[in-house]
Amino acid sequence: MKWVEATFGVTRGQVISVDGKTVRGSRDRFQGQDAIHLVSAFAHQSGILLGQRKVDDKSNEITAVPELLKTLFIKGCVVTVDALNCQKDIAQTIVDGGGDYVFALKGNHPLLHQEVIDWFAWAQDRQFGDIDHTYCEPANKGHGRIEMRRS
Fold first, then answer.
1. Helix and strand counts by DSSP (H, E) for the chain
2. Measured between alpha carbons, how far is 13 from 79 in angstroms, rounded to an integer?
3. Per-residue pLDDT tens for 59-70?
4. Would you say 26 and 40 are in contact if contact means Cβ atoms under 8 Å apart?
5. 20-46 burial string, b = 16+ CB within 10 Å, else e?
6. What is the pLDDT of residues 110-124, one digit of tens each?
7. What dotted CATH number matches 2-104?
8. What are the boundaries of each domain within the chain?
9. Which pLDDT score, from 0 to 100, does residue 147 have?
C-alpha cells in the first residue's frame, strides 16, 4: 500500500469504488475451508486497486469495508458502495476521512428506501423549486437509435 500511495496520486473528486467478491475456486471442502471473500477499493482515474481486505470467516463485508477505508487517503474523493454496504457506520467512516459518498439504495433498507422515494416524489411535485440541484440529459446514438437519459 505504501508503494501505491507513493506511485499513484489520488486526486480530488476521484471516484473510488468499494465492492466485495468471492475468490473463485478458493473453497476447499476436504479441509473445511470456506471460500475467501475480499473487499477491494478501486480508483477509477488512476486505474489501480488501492487496497483489499479479507472478510473474516464468521463475518461479512459490512465489517471489513470500514477497516479498508480507514487505511486509505480518501479526502476529497467520492466513494461508491453497493446496497449491502449502505450503512451508517460506513458513511461515517467516509465522512471522517474527508470523502463524499454515493450509496446504492435498494429494498434491503425498506424504511429508508421508501423515505427517499417519497422525498423525490415531493420534490418532483414542486418541480424541485427552492431545492439546490443539477440536471443532466445526455443524448447518445447507438444500436440504430438515439438514447436519452435524465439524471
1. 4, 7
2. 9
3. 789 999 999 999
4. no
5. beeeeeeeeeeeeeeeebbbebbbeeb
6. 999 999 999 999 999
7. 3.30.420.10
8. 2-104, 112-151
9. 82
